[in-house]
Design goal:
It contains two helices and eight strands. By secondary structure, the protein is an alpha+beta fold. Strand 4 (78-90) and strand 5 (93-104) form a beta hairpin. The longest helix is centred in the middle third of the chain and has 17 residues, at 58-74.
């Protein structure tokens, strides 16, 4: 099964992602972001960073997660080559706990394709159809 497909968008870049579970959808959305930022698959890093986020709904949580990854890469110089994540209900909110294995940006700088400003809410809606979760992600470049 395909998990990622390019999304045709006039001004920005994007992709459509599918997964059997909501955590899987977040995983493949992160992989889609990395595919827009770097050429080829990335090796896992040796340093582990933990990330915890909360949001009022899954769409906002997904945008916050992707924007945290963009910040980590483009501002902190740490690239998540591997990660595991889980979604945690937090009362009325959605929560995410992730472990990222990061490597220094310099280790993969020659594969960097260009900056992304942010993940957006443009057309973003997480839907479940036919046993799969689906989301269209648009990135502001």
């Amino acid at each position: 099964m395909r998990h990622l497909a390019e999304l045709d968008h006039t001004a920005d870049v994007g992709f459509v992602v599918w997964a059997k579970s909501l955590p899987g959808l977040f995983y493949w959305a992160a992989r889609g972001l990395l595919a827009e930022l770097f050429e080829g698959p990335l090796p896992p890093g040796k340093e582990v960073r933990e990330l915890r986020l909360r949001a009022p709904d899954p769409e906002t949580l997904l945008v916050r997660f992707l924007n945290e990854l963009i910040y980590l890469i483009q501002t902190q110089g740490q690239v998540p080559g591997g990660f595991s994540l889980r979604l945690v209900p937090r009362g009325e909110e959605c929560g995410l706990a992730a472990k990222l294995s990061v490597l220094p940006f310099e280790a993969v700088a020659d594969r960097f394709l260009g900056e992304v400003k942010s993940a957006t809410f443009h057309g973003l809606r997480i839907e479940k159809e036919g046993g799969f979760y689906r989301a269209s992600v648009v990135l502001d470049v």
